[in-house]
Amino acid sequence: MPLTPQEADRYQRQTMLKELGEAGQERLKNSSILCIGSGGLGSPALLYLAAAGVGKIGIIDPDLVDLSNLHRQILHDTDRVGTPKIESAKARLYQVNPHVEIILHEGRFEPDNCLDLLGPYDAILDGSDNFPTRFAVNDAAFFLKKPLIHGAIFKFEGQVTVFAPHLGGPCYRCLLPESPPEGAVPT
To answer: What pLDDT is recorded for position 66?
Structure first.
């Protein structure tokens, strides 16, 4: 689907880049991603995905906006404390870019729903904060042959990597075959 005149105006600074151009912006518009988590890792990623013009953004996060997290969960604000994070995220992302479609998935990302959740999306962004979810995300992405963007943070350090074993690269389990024992990794 081509860019509307309003979208062409909005993305003008991006489409001026020869590496992206209008064709690249149209690819972004026609792409989709599911973001698992809208907290410390998902917040900045979701803001940039919407601002860049990714056409369809799915969000799954079972938590509520909490005052003690606002210093790092920049997608949310004080007025939304106590509301579901996915609702808060949707409202904020439409303020950033009304041209994107936001799809909310209530509940948790779990082994019994993961294949259905990931199926409609082109890529997956894992901003979760626990190993069972990370392994479930990896396994589903692996079997569905979808690229997985993985983020992790500890204190002042962060990591981002892309796993695409269907294109010849490793998967999350290639680097970490089993979940560490309970208590072995700091929160």
So the answer is: 97
Q: DSSP assignment, residue 97?
A: -
| Whole-number Å distance between alpha carbons of 59 and 117 | 10
Q: What pLDDT is recorded for position 186?
A: 66
**Phi, psi dihedral angles at 125 (to 5 degrees):** -115, 115
- Degrees to nearest 5, angle at CA 114 with 153 and 133: 30
Q: Where are the domains of the chain?
A: 32-175
According to the model, what pLDDT value does residue 3 have? 95
159's tokens = 């990591």
Q: How far, in Å, CA of 56 to CA of 179, rounded?
A: 31
Q: How far apart are CA 90 and CA 69, in angstroms?
A: 18
Strands of the sheet containing 32-36, edge to edge, are: 101-105, 56-60, 32-36, 123-126, 148-154, 157-163
User: What CATH topology corresponds to 32-175?
Assistant: Rossmann fold (3.40.50)
Ramachandran bin of 160, using left for φ above 0, alpha for ψ from -120 to 50, beta for the remaining angles:
beta
The mean predicted confidence, pLDDT, of the chain is 94
Q: Is residue 13 classed exposed, middle or buried when 0-12, 13-18 and 19+ CB atoms within 10 A define those classes?
A: exposed
Alpha-carbon gap, residue 105 to 115, rounded angstroms:
13
